[in-house]
Structure formats: structure tokens, C-alpha cells
Fold:
Amino acid sequence: MTTAATHLECDDCRARYGLLDPVNTCRGCGGLLDAVYDLEGLRQRLDLDAVLRRPNTVWRWRELLPLVDDNHRVTLGEGGSPLLMCERVGEAIGLRRLAAKNDAMNPTASFKDRSFTISVSKAKELGVRLGFTYTSGNAGASFAAYMAKARIPSVVLVKDWATREKIAMIRIYGCRTVILSYDSFAEVTRMLEEAVKRLGIYQFVLFINPYRHEGYKSYAYELWNDLGRRVPDWVIQPVSNGGGLYGLWKGFRELKALGLADRLPRLVACQPTASPPIVRAFEAGKTVAERFGDPRASIAQSIGSDAPIGGGRRILRALADTRGRAVAATDSAMLEAMALLGRDGLFVEPSSAITVAAAKQLASEGIIGPEDRVVCILTGSGLKQPAAVDQVFPQGLEHIHARIEELEPLLLPTGGEG
Ligand SMILES: *Cc1c(COP(=O)(O)O)cnc(C)c1O
Ligand SMILES: [Zn+2]
Structure:
């Protein structure tokens, strides 16, 4: 059970770094680093049955993860979330084979756990002594949980508009939780760059940390297995910096290189209409996204980014390579999607419901066919942002006093809400 990873490589200048080097971005050119695997060698030695007998977590495909020594593994049982057919959503939007991957079922109730189990394990392996990150909520909660488990002290800066629920979750793991206010996001970026320059702090921000997206590759392995060792036609993913989407792409490419899959799914990136820099770049046929939009103007708090890291080049490459799509959705489309998902027993935050809004849009345009096999990745629990439910149902709740005369009309055959 040893890793097939051989080294890190710079996206831009192809410089190489060892797997035990505590590097964030390329020391030569500042480019993003990616782990490279000996897939040809792994193809020869992989025992697929043995892999599939291991527990269904992110760590199942151990050979495709970059940790060198298993003693450094930090896990809370992440991954292996259920893939559920969404019949009622599908009927409403005209898709007969719509399924959702319910990643709200993770230890800190968001998909971020897939990435932090890897990056915090690597931090332990690299001997990192202090952890630090900033967050709109879900990343901080996940980071804090894994750092606590790893016994590495940590500081989390939380954006001042994060929900109480998200802040509460970050605090309980015992890290130092600090509210961060700012006028423009450029200010934050400047401060973080300065912190790195002065203090040489090891970073956990997606892509700046070379390991987090490795955990998201598990989506590809799990979907392939859940669908009877088949590849779906479409996978729809909410995108801020695009770790989930890039991980999906890398994971499916690995399955193909290993001879397990014969093609890639078409990938869809969704963003709120308030801040859709990737959608804008995609539609203009560009390979780099420019700063665009106002992240605070949408209820999709977890995917509010006006300037994706690395200019979104990794995401745009993944979309181009899979003949994918980029879709922007409004707040009202997300709220409608939340209500639809509720009918299939799923409670997710607006940033996850956006995938169903995108599916609906692409189905109505005839881009996704009614028989296509479609998977929406539901990245986070609705419990992290319960106030959104009041916007889904603006009419408010009915009230009664404890009297049979008031109860009785509710229980007559026409009384239920369906
Ligand atoms: C962080 C987050 C996203 C976006 O993740 P990226 O990897 O930055 O694209 C989507 N949904 C939820 C619920 C999140 O917390
Ligand atoms: Zn470089």
C-alpha cells in the first residue's frame, strides 16, 4: 500500500520538488504545483479487488494519494458518501437518470473533508508546527477538525459574513478563531502574501497547498464504482477556486490511464450570477479568468469568489478537455433547487443546490439529454446556513394553539403539504 506518487511538478515551468519538501508554490516562478504519479507502474501492480475490499473512504485508493508514510494519516472517516437517485428532482426538470452525491454526510458536513484529510496528513508528514488559513466557513471547520486531530495548533480567520453555525463549528475543535473584516478582497490577498513573506507560514489555501485537491480525486473513483464501474455522462460541481472540479478531472484521467475507464465525463462548473468569473471566461473562450463580480451579493456564500486562484486556468483546462460547460445561476434558481432537493430527502446549502439549478438550465436548453446519466455533487449541508430556508418559504409557518379544533382541519385529507 505505498504511494505511486513520485514528485510535485510546477504547472508553468515544470520544475520538480520532492514529496517531503514543505513547498507551497513553485520557488522559481510562483506557479501551482501538482503531484505526479507513476500510473504505468501502478497499472502493472494494482490489485483492484484488494482496493475495493478496503473501507469506502477517501483513503481506499491509497496508491493514488501523495502521503509517503501511513503513520502520518489523519482521518475522521471522510468520503464514501451515498450516491442517490433523485427521482422527484429528475421529474421536475426532465432528467430520467439524475443522481446526487450527498457530501453533506462528511465529518464536518461538507466536501472539504476530502481535501483536509490529505493536506493535514501531509502537513504532519512534513513536520508543520503551526497551521493557518482563512475561510468563508466550511474550509475553516474542516481544517480545524483535522488539525485538532493531528495535534497541530492552528489559527483560522473567518470572513465576517460567515454564518453563526459555521463559526460555531470552527470553534468547537479548539483552534484560535478570529473574525476577519475587510473592504476589498485584494486587501486580504495582500495581507496573506505579506504573512507568507515575513513568517514563511505553510499554507492550506486550495492549490497554493499542493495536496488538497488530491483528496477530491476520490469523487471520480467513487462515482465510477457506484455506477457499476461506469463513467457518468455529466458531473456538475459548484466552483469557487475549483478544487472539486479539478480533482474530478484528475481522478477520471487516472482511471483512464489505469485502463479502468474508457472516457471522461463532461464536467460542469456552476457559479452564482453575482460572481461568475469562470463562466465569463469560459463563454469568451479564454484560458484565464479575470476578476469579476461581487461575491457578497449572493446567498451562495461558499462559492463566492471574484478571482479564482491561478486565474482559474486549471478549471478552464478541465472544462475544455471534457467538452464541459460553465453555468451561472441566480439566487432564486438556487432556492427553487433547494426546495426540489428537499422533496428527495436532501437538505443542502444554496452553494450546493446550484448544481440542480444548472442541471435544469442545461436540460431545458437541450444540452443535457433526458436520458443522460447526470450526477450533481452536493458539497455542503443546509444546516450550515439554515436562514436560507426562510427564503425558500417566504410565506412563513402556520401556527396553532394546542386545541383539537385548530388541529383537526390540518389532518383532513387535503391538509398535508404533499
Ligand atoms: C468550498 C466550497 C465549494 C467550492 O469549492 P472549490 O474547491 O473552491 O471550488 C463548494 N461548495 C461548498 C459547500 C463549499 O464549502
Ligand atoms: Zn515554476
